[in-house]
Amino acid sequence: MLEIKNLHARIAEDGTEIIRGLNLTVKAGEVAAIMGPNGSGKSTLSYILSGREDYEVTEGEILYNGENILELEASERAAKGIFLAFQYPVEIPGVATMQFLKVAMNEQRKYRGEDELTTPEFMRRVKEAAAELKIAPEMLRRPLNVGFSGGEKKRAEILQMALLEPKLCVLDETDSGLDIDALKIVADGVNALRSPDRAVIVITHYQRLLDYIVPDTVHVLYKGQVIKSGDKTLAHELEANGYADIIEAAA
Amino acid sequence: MNMQQAIKMTAAETALVDAYTAQIGDLPGDGSVLSVRDTLVHELKTAGLPTRRVESWHYTDLRTLLRAVPTADPTAFADRVEALVAGATVLSVRNGHADLKGNAPEGVTIRSYTDSLLDGSAAAGLAVLGTDDAIGRINGGLVRGGLELVIADGTELEDPLEIQLVQSLGQAHTRFPVSFGANTKATVIERHLSTNAAESLISSVSDITVGEGAEITWIVLQQQGAADTHLGQIRFDLAKDAKLHLFLINAGGKLVRQEIHGKTSGEGADFKLRGINLLGGESHTDVTFTLGHNVPHTTSTEIIRNVVFDRAKGVFQGKILVAKDAQKTDAKMACNTLLLSDDADLSAKPELEIFADDVQCGHGATVADIDHTQLFYLMARGIPENKARAMLVNAFVAEIVEELDDEPLVEALESVISAWLEKHA
């Protein structure tokens, strides 16, 4: 589903190179965890996948279902099924959450040549998905992410993911700022979306989240490269011994 | 001979003076009114239109900006349009002429302002606010019509009153002295619109007195045509415990100056100004506001949101004056701007002049572009860039509209805003 080949990327503004020859393959149905110390390029990778313009790809390619997506706008990538759950979901005062959800769902449908959802159908879907994630209707009446607690913001991200039904889900530090109950709700939400035609990339610092969303593969990112890949036991190894050994071995 | 008389009059100045001369004998007014008119036009002739050297006109050099004045056409025809919100009582003023047909709501007395000119009762109100009051001068010299409204003590109007000013071409000079009695509650919509692309010059002065304990919402919705000059002025005076929520939307016009001049005259008075300026094309729009907190214990908040596209130029001047005796004044003014093109321009000049020592006053001004993180967030959810931008611009002003707390009105204004944004963004 996703093939990243020899990717090099830098911050557009100051030219700092963050991703330095990254290779990664994620198959449909797979849950891949990306781990790594601070500053290794994890969040940058998520932004480049989703099309943030603050980064410039200087070399390599990203193939999504065989198509090079680097020239596509963020909105086009989203409509094609790439979803980024933000580490810090953005507050937008003046945009009602429900209006945002409806516009997002319908714009994606329009792009794909599908009919727009009727209002009752839209309402039904939101209600169902919100109930699953224990999101109170009051929260949906507020402006987008405004006044949401950290946990509420993360749940709102998963709600969006459930409603938009993406094919490739990228979760950027979704566990940060969550207590254990919120973590379980979020993990259940993600697990409910696991399917043979959907891939999930879980970016995380800690093993903790991976107890709830069990990955098929684990990749260690360091200085903009994947320096080691393995199965879920690699995450346990990192939890026990830290990154130092692996970094040293790769050096 | 003083120096000013030596200045050669511009085409617009000549046209305004000629318009007056051509109508002498036809302009309504008794002896006292005609004598005020004469004085005003004489002042216009000698002082000319204000230039940037006049402090209050520094960012709007009317003498340069007002290049020509369309000829008044007494035969011009304009149709009334549907009310902004269902159920509103529409008071129709077309090409400057008030239509008194129809029933006034209970507690509201409506009189033609032309009659007040004819019997001379309007003479005192024609005085200008100061030597730099060019709008008062032009309007006082040329005003022909308008409405005088008196809302009786204790009247609570359920539905809004819409003063609907429709202009087709030429000139219109109108006035609206409106007096809200004690403990009245009402919403008034002062709506200026144009039916076509022909050039018009409009001047309009609303003189609002709010009685003790009254709670009034006054909305100015300016949607003139892209070739029009709009010179508007709101004057207000708030009695004890009176509340005035003044809501201004500029969404049209080529050259617009909207002045708001008010004062608090009774303790406990509360004033709220909310302004949205949607500016595009080559337009020039100036909102100039002065408020005198003249007595103790009065409050005001002012929030102006500007959205500036293309080569448009916006101006906000806000001056809050706190008199020496006006202790415990609480006044806060903010002017926030989204500049959406490299050639867009906005000048903000917030000022506080405080002579009392126990007050809370503040002001702030911000200018920004669309927030890129917010834009990326919306796009990452599949919303195309132009639509995402429109949503963010809309959000910037929607916050202000929602304060109105009147659902049909909020919806109507939101659709005016989104229609404007769709056309310009």
Concise account of the structure shown:
The complex is a heterodimer of chains A (251) and B (425). By secondary structure, chain A is of the alpha/beta class. Helices cover 40% and strands 28% of the residues of chain A.
- From the alpha-carbon coordinates, what is the Rg of chain B to the nearest angstrom? 21 Å
**What general form of chain B does the structure show?**
globular
Based on the structure, what is the oligomeric state of the protein chains? heterodimer
Strand segment tally of chain A: 12
Proportion in β-strands of chain A:
25-35%
The largest sheet of chain B is:
10 strands, mixed
Q: What would you call the structural class of chain A? A: alpha/beta
The CATH homologous superfamily of chain A corresponds to P-loop containing nucleotide triphosphate hydrolases
Kindly list the characteristics that best describe this protein.
heterodimer, A: 251 residues, alpha/beta, Rossmann fold, six-stranded mixed sheet, 10 helices, 12 strands, 28% strand, B: 425 residues, 2 domains, ten-stranded mixed sheet, 39% strand, globular
